[in-house]
Specification:
α6 packs across α9 and α14 crosses α15. The chain is mostly helical. It has 15 helices and 2 strands. A hairpin with a 6-residue loop joins β1 and β2. It has 3 domains: about 100 residues, no CATH class; about 190 residues, Fido-like domain (Fic-like fold, Orthogonal Bundle); about 60 residues, Winged helix-like DNA-binding domain superfamily/Winged helix DNA-binding domain (Arc Repressor Mutant, subunit A), CATH 1.10.10.10. The chain is about 50% helix and about 0% strand. Its EC number is 2.7.7.108.
Length: about 350
């Protein structure tokens, strides 16, 4: 297994005194949730977060500093734009998680999306008006069947009304965990929003769990945000021909760790529908985005490009990502060293292979 360096921010959070731990975990969850969309915050965001956690500035002032930081930047590249999104949304998630106000309603759900993505997405807080599919690594390239665009508001209202009328009294904790897993997976599957669906659902879930009286440890979303998303995918996928059925078992393990402080090991490889990643015992990397090896924003974009077209040249990648050929060369070399990519064939006629296992 490769030696993966620890995130210094993670070490900083672990050493916080109890009086600042909750705010630190809010920032940690906010930053970790950016992983589900392949986004990486900047060093400036980390330093700003520390100032807030240390009491030098308020969470509102932290958000203002992030906004001002990007107002002074012109002509940003695609990668820089994605970093801006990661920074701004991280600050907004930390703000929402540090506040006590919450109402269980579809309006609140839509409001969270609007607050997170206002000025970033033109559709912030709006229900999508077209149908979508998404290729999922955990489904070996297949997609979940998401809610139909013409029925999204009705479906959202229905799910909320059922949950609002549900009574938890008399249930065992196992039954509570199962019910919560079903509710949140169905809410996610509706996929009300064009983008930002998982981040919005995660923030909403944390707030709802608090309303129910749970002391949810936010850090689990930081460490296992991709596991959380993949568990939602598996809870909503059937392929009866191949003997694959929707299951909340993975999501329930996540929730048991989150709410009951249990210690289930959470590995993305165990959810892959093919089962081929269960043969070995090397946890270092199975999917270059979903598992422990960390890639920066540009490297993640390169992976996305290569998933669509393995024969892309460095020049073509540079043009699509608006950067130099030498930058692409450094990124490719870095990913080769991390065991994420392998080149086969000549420089002109070869192609890149994304390594699912070492």
């Amino acid at each position: 297994m490769k030696d993966i360096k620890k995130d210094p921010f993670e070490e900083y959070i672990k050493n916080l005194p109890p009086t600042r731990k909750e705010l630190g975990q809010a920032w940690q969850a906010a930053i970790g949730l950016q992983d589900v969309d392949g986004l990486k915050p900047s060093e400036y965001l980390y330093e700003t977060a520390k100032k807030n956690i240390d009491g030098e500035i308020s969470v509102d002032e932290a958000g203002d500093l992030i906004n001002s930081y990007y107002e002074s930047k012109d002509g940003r590249s695609e990668v820089e734009t994605r970093t801006e999104e990661a920074d701004k949304v991280s600050a907004r998630i930390a703000k929402i998680l540090s506040e006590k106000a919450f109402t269980f309603s579809p309006t609140q759900y839509l409001s969270i999306h609007r607050e997170l993505f206002l000025g970033i997405y033109s559709h912030a807080g709006k229900i999508r008006d077209y149908n979508i599919t998404k290729k999922e690594w955990v489904l070996d390239g297949d997609t979940v069947s998401y809610g139909g665009a013409t029925e999204l508001r009705e479906t959202l209202d229905y799910d909320f009304s059922r949950e609002r009328d549900f009574r938890y009294n008399g249930l065992t904790m196992d039954e509570v965990i199962h019910h919560l897993a079903v509710f949140i997976s169905r809410l996610w599957q509706i996929h009300v929003f064009e983008e930002g669906n998982t981040r919005t659902t995660a923030v909403f879930l944390i707030k709802y769990l608090r309303m129910l009286g749970f002391d949810a440890e936010n850090y689990l979303f930081a460490e296992h945000s991709w596991y959380f998303r993949n568990a939602l995918v598996r809870a909503n996928y059937n392929n009866i021909k191949n003997g694959i059925y929707e299951t909340t078992e993975f999501l329930e393990m996540f929730l048991r760790n989150l709410l009951l402080n249990e210690k289930h090991e959470l590995h993305n490889r165990e959810m892959h529908v093919s089962g081929r990643f269960l043969l070995g015992h090397d946890d270092s990397i199975n999917d270059p985005i979903n598992d422990p090896i960390k890639l920066d924003g540009r490297e993640l974009k390169i992976i996305e490009l290569l998933r669509e077209e393995t024969g892309l040249t460095r020049k073509e990648m540079a043009a699509r990502l608006d950067c130099s050929d030498s930058t692409i060369k450094r990124c490719l070399q870095s990913m080769v060293e991390k065991g994420v990519l392998k080149r086969i064939g000549s420089n002109k006629k070869g192609e890149w292979i994304i390594l699912e296992k070492k």
